[in-house]
């Protein structure tokens, strides 16, 4: 067991989240993975310039030494002259600014009185201009974790980088569909005490982002970088996390590497698929920042902040759904997570909400497991079975077969699933129990359901079996 306190362990997070709006400095839509074949192509070789303090950034100089040619592909459906650095940036996206302010309020941060866009020198080719536009939005916030308060010193609103699609020894090719998408960068203080708290904080911050309902989802839309250090060892930044579950193992591996290799200098490392890390570049500094002169400052007025509506956290929404419908916490969380219109179904169909939740959440998983298919029922498919359940034309046990049949293009065969006459069912069960004395109720259940599957409720069948077993004792 590792004693992280004795090890002098310190860690902080940098969380980057794409916003689901148009781009930050133009009117282009945020079409990540734009497949439109029409594109313009330009080539550039970027060089390092001095920052606001008159010095060149060491990380930028490191990238520039590679002397690679950057090739940019711009699709007309997702890029314009702003991305090509042939036109000045438009005014900052006000919707993106409001979302950033929402997030700032949700983490108890103090809004800056005036937003000033800065240029951050980036010469790895991921920005056509050689810099990334970024703006400080708020300072000195915090979140509460199970192991204590974690500080949020800064929240930035910035533009996403271009997407690398190919690399050779002399060139790197980028697609500009991603360049300019609004990006939130939220950093924590080095308050995280162990790998599990790092994972918890990353999960909590991601939940806060998603609570705005204005962030992109899917692989690559959110990224977490971990800054960590141990006693007598400089700070290391780990980049490349795609799965929060890997965070503890990656940190454990990195601590083991740090103890063996004894670095002498702070640097950035890339997390590899095997959860080890490799050297990426020197640690960047403040020398790469200088003011953006093409965009006016934005004053954050009292009137502006008073109009910001703070969203209800996903966790709070889940608790409300759980209490309102008396369903399990797991179902409530999944309903919120996948944005399922649960109110719509429960208001339209007079069915037990537990049955509706089970049908929406568990049946699609069971269909994929049982029938080895990637197809999923759609809204209209669910409405079909809910209507049949409400009219008592089928039992809930028939739902999975009916939905699978719909996915195969078949109409529900109601004769096959019509409810069995109660007296006939009871007679069958009574006879089965008399012929199989000593067999458990669960053992007899299979025989009954083999004959009546989809026509009777399983719980009711089990109750009848136990009843007749007691009568024969």
Describe the structure.
- This protein has helices at 4-7, 58-64, 94-106, 195-211, 247-261, 302-306, 314-325, 329-337, 342-348, 353-361, 363-371, 379-390, 399-407, 414-417, 422-435, 441-452, 458-472, and strands spanning 10-18, 39-44, 69-75, 110-111, 114-115, 117-121, 131-145, 148-159, 163-167, 171-175, 182-187, 222-229, 236-241, 267-271, 277-282, 289-291, 298-299.
- The strands form 3 sheets. Strands 1, 4, 6, 7, 8, 11, 12, 13, 14, 15 and 16 form an 11-stranded mixed beta sheet that branches. The protein has a 4-stranded mixed beta sheet with strand order 2-3-10-9, with no helix packed on it. A two-stranded antiparallel ribbon has the order 5-17.
- It has 473 residues and is of the alpha+beta class.
- The mean pLDDT is 89.
- Helix 11 (363-371) packs across helix 13 (399-407) and helix 16 crosses helix 17 (458-472).
- The relative contact order is 0.11.
- The protein is built from 17 helices and 17 strands.
- The protein has 3 domains: 4-306, no CATH class; 314-417, no CATH class; 422-472.
């Amino acid at each position: 067991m590792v004693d992280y306190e004795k090890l002098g362990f310190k860690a902080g997070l940098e969380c980057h989240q794409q916003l689901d709006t148009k781009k930050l400095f133009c009117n282009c839509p945020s079409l990540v993975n734009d497949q439109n074949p029409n594109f313009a192509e330009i080539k550039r070789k970027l060089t390092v310039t001095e920052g606001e303090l008159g010095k060149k950034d060491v990380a930028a100089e490191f990238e520039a030494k590679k002397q690679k040619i950057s090739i940019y592909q711009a699709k007309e459906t997702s890029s314009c002259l702003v991305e090509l650095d042939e036109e000045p940036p438009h005014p900052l996206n006000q919707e993106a600014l409001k979302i950033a302010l929402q997030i700032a309020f949700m983490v108890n941060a103090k809004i800056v009185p005036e937003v000033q866009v800065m240029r951050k020198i980036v010469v790895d080719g991921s920005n056509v201009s050689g810099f990334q536009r970024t703006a400080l939005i708020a300072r000195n916030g915090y979140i509460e974790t199970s192991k204590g308060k974690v500080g949020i010193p800064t929240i930035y609103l910035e533009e996403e980088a271009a997407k690398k699609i190919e690399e050779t020894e002399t060139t790197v090719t980028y697609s500009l569909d991603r360049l300019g998408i609004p990006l939130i960068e939220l950093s924590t203080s080095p308050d995280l005490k162990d790998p599990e708290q790092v994972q918890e904080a990353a999960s909590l911050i991601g939940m806060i982002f998603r609570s705005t309902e204005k962030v992109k989802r899917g692989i690559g839309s959110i990224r977490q970088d971990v800054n960590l250090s141990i006693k007598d060892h400089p700070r290391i930044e780990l980049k490349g996390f795609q799965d929060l579950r890997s965070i503890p193992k990656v940190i454990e591996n990195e601590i083991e590497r740090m103890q063996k290799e004894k670095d002498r200098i702070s640097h950035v490392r890339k997390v590899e698929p095997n959860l080890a890390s490799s050297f990426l570049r020197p640690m960047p500094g403040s020398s790469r920042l200088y003011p953006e002169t093409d965009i006016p400052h934005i004053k954050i007025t009292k009137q502006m902040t008073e109009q910001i509506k703070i969203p209800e956290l996903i966790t709070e929404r889940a608790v409300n759904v759980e209490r309102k419908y008396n369903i399990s916490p797991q179902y409530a969380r999944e309903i919120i997570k996948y944005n399922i219109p649960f109110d719509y179904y429960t208001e339209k169909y007079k069915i037990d909400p537990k049955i509706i939740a089970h049908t929406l959440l568990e049946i699609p998983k069971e269909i994929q497991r049982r029938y080895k298919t990637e197809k999923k029922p759609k809204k209209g498919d669910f409405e079909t079975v809910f209507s049949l359940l409400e009219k008592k034309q089928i039992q809930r046990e028939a739902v999975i077969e009916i939905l699978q049949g719909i996915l195969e293009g078949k109409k529900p065969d109601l004769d096959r699933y019509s409810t069995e006459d109660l007296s006939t069912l009871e007679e069958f069960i009574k006879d089965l129990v008399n012929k199989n004395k000593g067999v458990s109720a669960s053992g007899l259940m299979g025989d009954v359901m083999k004959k009546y599957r989809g026509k009777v409720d399983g719980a009711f069948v089990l109750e009848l079996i136990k009843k007749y077993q007691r009568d024969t004792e």
